């Protein structure tokens, strides 16, 4: 499988499809149940602005969720 880029540009839906383990990170930043069922085709950066999360923290949490960072 190709490496998934978690750089703030990959749409939330693509991240969740390729790395379901990231769901908890998105939930911790305010993802609603509706979005879980049909994730928005927006980059995590837009998601974080909407939910008032520091983008760098969100990206770090996503990396931690898939085991890249500790």
Description:
This protein has 70 residues and is an all-alpha fold. The protein has five helices and no strands. It has one domain (12-65). The chain has helices at residues 12-18, 23-28, 33-37, 44-50, 55-65. The longest helix has 11 residues, at 55-65. It starts with 11 loop residues before the first helix and ends in a 5-residue tail after the last helix. 20% of the residues are buried. The model has no long low-confidence stretch (mean pLDDT 79).
State the secondary-structure class.
Answer: mainly alpha
Q: What is the straight-line distance between the termini?
A: 22 Å
The tally of beta strands, per DSSP, is 0
Helical segment count: 5
Helix content: 40-55%
For the sheet with most strands, the description reads: none
> How many domains is the backbone divided into?
1
Following the backbone from N to C, one meets helices and strands in this order, namely HHHHH
- Could you name the ranges where pLDDT drops below 50 across 5 or more consecutive residues? none
Give the overall shape. Answer: globular
How much of the polypeptide forms β-strand, as a percent range? under 5%
Secondary-structure map with pairings?
Blueprint: H1 12-18, H2 23-28, H3 33-37, H4 44-50, H5 55-65
Task: Provide tags for this entry.
70 residues; mainly alpha; single chain
Give a summary of the structure in a few sentences.
This protein has 70 residues and is mainly α. The protein contains five helices and no strands.
């Amino acid at each position: 499988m190709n490496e998934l880029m978690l750089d703030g540009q990959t749409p939330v839906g693509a991240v969740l499809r390729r790395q379901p383990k990231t769901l908890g990170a998105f939930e911790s930043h305010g993802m609603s149940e509706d979005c879980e069922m049909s994730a928005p085709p927006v980059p995590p950066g837009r998601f974080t602005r909407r939910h008032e999360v520091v983008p760098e923290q969100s990206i770090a949490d996503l990396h931690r969720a898939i085991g890249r960072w500790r």
